[in-house]
Amino acid sequence: QVQLVESGGGLVQNGGSLRLSCAASGSAFSINTMGWYRQAPGNERESVAAITSGGSTDYVDSVKGRFTISRDNAKNTVYLEMNSLKPEDTAVYYCNAIAYRRLQGPNYSYSYWGQGTQVTVSS
Questions:
Q1: C-beta of residue 120 within 8 angstroms of C-beta of residue 8
Q2: Rounded distance, CA 122 to CA 26, Å?
Q3: What pLDDT is stored for residue 20 in this prediction?
């Protein structure tokens, strides 16, 4: 199994910044895309940002220009730098990784989730 451990959430004022980290463990696995999702109360979980193992990134429109996703492949860690935070960014943020056992190959990829970290932006 791949385990994802998130850190960096918290309470910040409108316009503030936070940095989320997510470390993946599982030596028998190779990790392809890593990303961040969020879920606010009463809303569905939505994809916020994603990054491939090659470094290609994608963002939901509402965070473009404010959030930056990056990863350290050597550490199997993904980061989300969040600037100019708004109250509507308040949510539980979940780390996600698409990974496969090296012995099986990428056709047997699975999706793994972290436990979530709360981000609260006060107005």
A1: no
A2: 36
A3: 98
44 CB-near residues (< 8 Å, 6+ apart)? none
| AA identity, residue 63 | V
Q: How far apart are CA 24 and CA 40, in angstroms?
A: 24
Q: What confidence score (pLDDT) does residue 92 get?
A: 98
Per-residue H/E/C for the chain: CCEEEEECCEEEECCCCEEEEEEEECCCEEEEEEEEEEECCCCCCEEEEEECCCCCEEECHHHCCCEEEEEECCCCEEEEEECCCCHHHCEEEEEEEEEEECCCCHHHCEEEECCCEEEEEEC
CA atoms within 13 A on the CB side of 91: 21
User: Which pLDDT score, from 0 to 100, does residue 26 have?
Assistant: 85
Instruction: Give me the residues of the chain with pLDDT under 50, please.
Output: none
